[in-house]
Design brief:
- By secondary structure, the protein is an alpha+beta fold.
- The chain has a single domain, classed as START domain (Alpha-D-Glucose-1,6-Bisphosphate, Chain A, domain 4, 2-Layer Sandwich).
- Helix content is about 30%, strand content about 45%.
- The protein is built from three helices and seven strands.
- Strands 1-7-6-5-4-3-2 form a seven-stranded antiparallel β-sheet, covered by helices on one side.
- The longest helix is centred in the last third of the chain and has 32 residues.
- The N and C termini lie far apart (about 40 Å).
């Protein structure tokens, strides 16, 4: 199992950032275009404890993804993959109020690939791809909140 971590500050109040990120359509706004992320179905438009989401996209190869929100409390939620390419995927999203009108967005992903030894060899590729995805997410989130000001 590997853990990927990423964080950044966005110039917006924590409640605004929380509302943006807990709306399932945010994924299509903040994901790099080459991922071609599409929400196929969701049990809720605004994430709730137990919400389930079905996606399609291309992290490394084209795949479908089914996840569930297993934790949801003010300014933190966890989505866990039910089915998809990964053996394990647990993504914790945290939003911290920095008290100066900014919010720290913190992502932590625990993941493991299938395919035993071969999967472990490919974890570095996934880590590099995640870094690219989350740099884009930072830029897209900043651009979104700059536009809404």
């Amino acid at each position: 199992m590997r853990t990927f971590r990423h964080s950044f500050l966005v110039n917006a109040e924590v409640e605004q950032v929380w509302n943006f990120y807990t709306n399932i359509r945010h994924l299509e706004v903040i994901s790099p275009p080459d991922l071609r992320i599409r929400v196929l179905k969701s049990t809720h438009q605004e994430l709730q404890q137990g919400s389930e989401v079905w996606l399609t996209g291309k992290l490394v190869t084209r795949s479908n993804w089914h996840s569930r929100i297993t934790v949801l409390k003010p300014y933190e939620y966890v989505d866990e993959m039910i089915s998809g390419r990964f053996k394990l995927w647990k993504h914790t999203h945290r939003f911290l109020d920095s008290k100066d009108g900014k919010t720290e967005v913190i992502d932590e992903i625990d993941f493991a690939l299938r395919y035993g030894f071969l999967g472990r060899l490919l974890e570095g590729v996934v880590m590099n791809r995640l870094e690219q995805v989350f740099v884009h997410r930072k830029e897209a989130t900043e651009a979104y909140f700059k536009k809404t000001r």
